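RETRY 2/3 - previous attempt timed out on the joint model. Re-submitting the same 1005-residue input unchanged.
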Amino acid sequence: MQLADLSPRRIAQRLAVGIDGPLLTLSLALAAIGLATLFSASYENPARVTAQVGNLAVALAAMWLMAQVPPQTLMRFAVPVYLIGLVLLVAVALAGEVVNGARRWLHVGVTRFQPSEMMKLALPMMLAWYFHKYEATLRLRTFALAALLLALPVLLIAREPDLGTAVLVAAAGFYVIFFAGIGWKVLAGLGALGAASLFPLWGMLHDYQRKRILTLLDPSQDPLGAGYHTIQSTIAVGSGGITGKGWLHGTQAHLEFIPERHTDFIFAVYSEEFGLVGNAILLALYTLLVARGLMIAANAATFYARLLAASVTLMFFTYAFVNMGMVSGVLPVVGVPLPFISYGGTALLTLFLGIGILMSVHRHRRLVQT
Amino acid sequence: MRPTELKDHQRELYLFQLRVGVAGVAVLIAFALLFARFFQLQVVQHDTYAAKAEDNRISIVPIAPNRGLILDRNGVVLARNYSAYTLEIFPAKVTDLDRTIQELGEVIEVQAKDRARFRKLYAETRNAESLPIRTRLSDEEVARFAANRYRFPGVEIKARLFRQYPFGALASHVIGYIGRINQKDQERLEELEVEANYRGTDFIGKAGVEASYQQELHGTTGFEQVEIDAAGRGIRTLARTPAQAGNNVTLTLDIKLQEVAEAAFGERRGALVAIEPSTGGVLAFVSKPGFDPNLFVDGIDPQSWAELNNSPDRPLNNRAIAGVYPPGSTFKPFMCMAALELGKRNFKSAIHDPGYFEFGGRRFRDSKPGGNGYVDLYRSIVVSSDTYYYQVANDLGIDAIAAFMAKFGFGAKSGIDLEGEASGVLPSPEWKMKRFRRPEQQKWYAGETISIGIGQGYNAYTPLQIALATATLAANGDMYRPHLVSYIDNLRTGERRQIEPVLVKHIPLKPENLEFVKRAMQGVNKEGTGARAFGDAEYTSGGKTGTAQVVGLKQGEKYDEKKVSERHRDHSLFIVFAPVESPRIALMAVVENGGFGARAAAPIARTVLDYYLLGKLPEGLLKPAPDDEEDAESD
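RETRY 2/3 succeeded.
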């Protein structure tokens, strides 16, 4: 009987079903770099590396599970997950826990989590479902409603305030709308409108958010306050040079000049120790990952799968771009982790769930090329 | 219908793939831009950022040099360093200073005066990294604090070198003291462009030799390159340039002689300067009362400061160089010399002294009622005839007197190696013109010249000036710049820098005149006003007593010591050099409100000379002579 066949080879084959080799290789390569960098950044607390290995195991399991779920099944969860996410965001706004001046956390029994995190996947799923449903009749009105679906969670998250996550969630939603085929002219018009609305938007920003943007323009204005992160991480990157100072030899990192060096600013540690060469390798890995994701999206079987896969892929890109941009001092400091590398279980879980979705889409791709 | 739908699907897919392509290109462009930024940071600007990272990482920690020692001429240490533990507060790291100090008091004794001193330091010292709340901790206290250290972030125990003055108040005005560098000191260091060498140094000489030889005593600051973390904690030492200790400064002063001199003063106020005539080296330098310089070392507490500052005895005032006194009759030998040199008198010039000199309808009284009878030039010094010198002054005129006295250094800074020297007043019409504003005050009256002749009137000189003039007379007109430091040792190179005697000038004086004046001064100590103090001395000496009026007497008013309050009594002065044949010491002593020069100052001078020339130590304190009217010789 088939069930009785428990040879390792058979188990491996069974496990490998639905797993995309290139995606797994790339994400594991990135995760490995992450662990090595984390080891260097957490020399004073090696337990963190162990914890991250545990996080990685959980995330891989979640990825495997996700890869087994066909996109059609996933689509059925789109609306409820989105609605639950929305309700939870409202709950956060009403009864969330305040940490460091921001209301982001929700207590659930013994643990607490950030509902905004689940929106990173829930929103693109919802929008992809929405466009899939109205695939035949895509009009401007359809896009307007999509924009509303996007705006609701994004505004709730931005109000927490959590600018970084809001930007990421908004980007994920925007990518779906973009791939759904919104007209270039409309896009250009929206772009102009967005630029024009920057001015009133400035007035709505929290002081610390404004300060971060101002500090980005001139970090030296506040070298020990808001500018400190950027100045120190830029020094770390710049002092890395072409080949870097060598693993475990970054002085900026090891003498604790880089704040949040194991989470949002881990790229500064990496860049200081591995230099321009290391950065090129990292960029190459991300490029390959994005390329693979876009390829999967291009060959997806359904409109839903296509939109979701493309959006998730560009989300990886957005994480990487925003994070590296802020560490190297060209983008404002927003709380965005470096995908697969920054320490943190939730982010890793979201990312590998995304990988799982891509794998599932790939498995159920169009078999006949037209 | 179906083909259209299919076509739509085709079109849709094509559209989608186009957008995927656009997205792919956008991603590539975005990553290329990032790479360009990395290239800019890591290749183009690498040197800048590498330097910044090094700056971050490496802190230059100064190592303060050990201050040089101050020694007396025989190598006795007068100022030294000792290592002790202090409890220091880093104000920047402490949120609630009062509470921290309060809680520290539960672990280690913190007295009210420690608190007051800390407050004072905190207010005065800007940007100080740490300030001591307690000094000189015992081993037990160190252990007790160490056990409780976790309770006090921003409080640390430091091992520091402290200055110590083993002789306490003895020679305090010579040695001086050190104190914390204040804003004014800092500005001065910056003016001298030596502030870099003072990084890590908290203390600086404030008075005495500590101040005037600050640059010698300080040494060269060393540096340590320390790797630090973001919190500024030292991780390890990368390189080290050791500090070079300051030079040892050896004085011309003999501390034993100084001790004898100060003991001779007892509780009386006054000053004494003893000079080696052939070099200008200062052998003893007294300003009484003194103060304990150790009080200043770790910041004087406000109470002690107020006591020193508000005392009517003015212990912080260096009387020997900053106090000015009328020379009284100690001026007469110089007047005598002027009269001889300028040809206004010869050895035989004599007068009959009726006890007063009349000028312009005014009587200038002699201090001896009824006068001294027949007085020749020799006796004019020996018996100290006022009448004689009223006439001499009148005959010489103020311009000649001022010009002659200026040669002996009266009214001019001597250039001694101490800060804060006063000029005194050598009266002259020019001086009066400058000193006063109203025309009637600016005019010099001939009558004013008369009292100048006996060292009164506007005459006002520092004890050092009078001592220097005496030494110059003793050295036959050679004036050596008075100095306190004999040589400076550089311990590192072993080099010894001798402070060579500086001959400021040679006053050309006729040998026979010199011989005469010295003989007359010898007469003073043998048979004149100094005989009671020096008559039985085993060496030859030439002296002159002096009594300086503190309050002016009205015409016809008689000075009665018992009627005037203690602080209005006359100052007692004495100048002397010995041995007469080849003087080894010349000194001037003044006892404030001590009465006749023969009574208070002369015995002190005798004690000092006895010790210096014979090695004779006095038995206990010298008592002032009995107060009998008969004995009240004029001087």
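Strands of chain A lie at 97-99, 102-108, 111-113. Closing ticket.
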